[in-house]
Write a structure and sequence with these properties.
The structure is a single chain. The protein is α/β, with parallel strands linked by helices. The protein has two domains: 155 residues, NAD(P)-binding Rossmann-like Domain (Rossmann fold), CATH 3.40.50; 99 residues, Orthogonal Bundle (ProC C-terminal domain-like fold), CATH 1.10.3730.10. Helix content is 55%, strand content 14%. The chain has eleven helices and eight strands. Strands 3-2-1-4-5-6-7-8 form an eight-stranded mixed sheet, with helices on both faces. The two termini are 32 Å apart. The mean pLDDT is 97. Bound molecules: NADPH dihydro-nicotinamide-adenine-dinucleotide phosphate and (2S)-3,4-dihydro-2H-pyrrole-2-carboxylic acid. Catalyzes the reduction of 1-pyrroline-5-carboxylate (PCA) to L-proline.
Length: 263
Amino acid sequence: MNIGFIGTGNMASAMIAGLHSSHPDWQIHGFNRSMGKLTDLQTRYGLQIAQSLEDLAARADVLVLAVKPQGYDAMLATLAPPLQARHTLVTVAVGYTIARVQSHIGTQTHIVRSMPNTPASVGAGMSALCGSAGLPEARRSDVTAVFESFGRAVWIAEGQFDVFSAIAGSSPAWVYMMIEAMADAAVQNGMPRAQAYAVISQAVLGSAQLVRDSGQHPGVLKDQVCSPGGTTIAGVAALEKAGMRNAWFEAVNATLARTKALG
Ligand SMILES: NC(=O)C1=CN([C@@H]2O[C@H](COP(=O)(O)OP(=O)(O)OC[C@H]3O[C@@H](n4cnc5c(N)ncnc54)[C@H](OP(=O)(O)O)[C@@H]3O)[C@@H](O)[C@H]2O)C=CC1
Ligand SMILES: O=C(O)[C@@H]1CCC=N1
């Protein structure tokens, strides 16, 4: 597999870390505006540095466009000339539709719209994929292999992308905030911070794994922790009083509003 990243910032770096760890034999190339990130990725994951977009397009079959959505219009205009039939263009920009990509580069290039997340760097990513009309099966399986190399990947309808981006692309940031805040409370009550992060991250990981693997309703799992008149239900009441459930609606809906504004 020959994969080329255009833009090697936070998201591309996470994907490259995950790719390198599971497939050290794959050829991973990168092109970035500034040099520092490229040389760092070269040192850590053997990234091969391309000198230009044209150079990158000559080296790779799967091209991942990992610049900010605001940079997509200009980047696609530059990328269109070197694109060839053998390329599959993978987009990662929140809110940027396949139709909008095609308005810049035409309909002859096979496109996969993707939405990964940064836990890809430790092989625990959650990605969505959606292909342009007529995407050949071989291209679909190549891109699936790339995204499954750093976590789970699902093909979904493009209409679901924005909400997926909120609950999987953005949600890691919210979970980190929750972990940080819970650790603050543990520190306030005397636990060393490093120990609090180790404990909370394992508790969050285990809770998520139980939801995923048991298939049980999260409310049932919550009830199993809450003893009548016990300690946990006191915490549940405090979270309800603080408007925790409504805060999640607000976060998802604010994210969707911003996605629409960017689009
Ligand atoms: N971060 C995340 O958790 C997620 C991000 N995404 C999507 O991934 C995309 C990238 O986001 P993210 O990685 O966070 O952003 P970053 O700003 O971290 O990375 C963008 C990279 O693109 C480079 N770049 C910008 N313009 C050019 C150009 N003209 N030529 C070459 N390189 C260029 C930047 O280089 P330089 O450093 O020199 O400016 C930078 O390294 C976005 O579209 C975002 O929607 C999707 C899911 C999750
Ligand atoms: O914040 C952002 O715009 C990107 C998209 C999903 C996660 N990060």
